[in-house]
Amino acid sequence: MIDDQTQAAEELQQRLRQTVIVHDELPTEIRTVAGVDVAYEQNSNRLVAAVAVLDVASLQVIRIASYHGEATFPYIPGLFSFRELPAVLSALDQLPVKPDLLVCDGQGLAHPRRFGLACHLGVVTGIATIGCAKTRLIGEYEPLGADRGAYQSLVDEGAVVGRALRTQTGKNPVFVSVGHKVSLETATDWILRLTPTYRLPETTRAADQAVKALLRAPR
DNA sequence: GCGACAG
DNA sequence: ATCTTGTCGC
User: Fold this and answer.
1) Which three-class secondary structure state does DSSP give residue A173?
2) Site described as Interaction with target DNA, positions (predicted)?
3) How far: A15 CA to C3 C1' (Å)?
4) Is A24 annotated as a binding residue?
5) Considering the domain A4-216 in this protein, what is its CATH number?
6) Which of A122, A135, A148, A181 could pair with A128 in a Cys bridge, judged by C-beta atoms 3.0 to 4.6 Å apart?
7) Does A2 have pLDDT greater than 80?
8) DSSP assignment of A96-164, as one string?
9) Per residue in A12-61, pLDDT tens?
C-alpha cells in the first residue's frame, strides 16, 4: 500500500521524464558552473540548501546563495528530488544571474524511472544539469581501470543510464549521468574538468562546505 | 520472500 | 543525511 504522496510523486516523475533533453543544448559560452547541496540538522526538520557558483576558468567560488527551511518530504530512494528540490529552488532564486551549468549531488537518468534529482532540477529550471553521485542507485558496471579518466557504462535493464567514472587514480569512482541539456559524453568531460585534485567536483565540494558552515552559524 | 536502496 | 577519534596507508 503506497500512500498518495508517493503515488503522486511517481506519477509526476513519469510525466516530467518526457521533457528531459539528453543531448547538448548548453549555452554557447559556459562561464559559470554551480554546485548545489543540502545539509540537515539532527533531531529536527531544519535544513539549509546552498548553491555555489564557480568561475569556470579559475574554478574559484564567485558567489554563494542559500536558503534555510524545513524538510517537507521524507528521504525515499527514488524520490530524493522531492525532498531536496524545494529548498534548492529557493536558494537558486537568490541568485541574480542563473549559472550556465549545474552539477547535482545525486543521479540524473541513472534512476529507476530515469528521472533523478539532476533531471528534475533541470526541467523545472531550464538550466543544463549533470548528475554526479558518490554512490550508485541502480545499474551494473564492469570493473574499470585504476587511472583517472577511466570509466565503464552503468547499465540498467539493457540501457546505458550513466557512467562509473574514476576522477582520481586509485580512488572509488563517481556515478555520472545526464541531467538535462547535456549529453553523457559532455557530462563526463565536465566532471573530469571539475575534479583536478579531488574525487568530487569542486562545485559539489564548495556547495557542501557552504551548507555545513551555514548550518552551524546562527540565523 | 529476500536484498538493494542517490542524500 | 547525521552521530564520530584515531588510525592505517601512500
Assistant:
1) coil
2) 75
3) 38
4) no
5) 3.30.2170.10
6) A181
7) no
8) SS--SEEEESS-SS-STTS--HHHHHHHHH--EEEEEESS-SS-B-----SSTT-EEEEEETTEEEEEE
9) 999 999 999 999 999 999 999 999 999 999 999 999 999 999 999 999 99
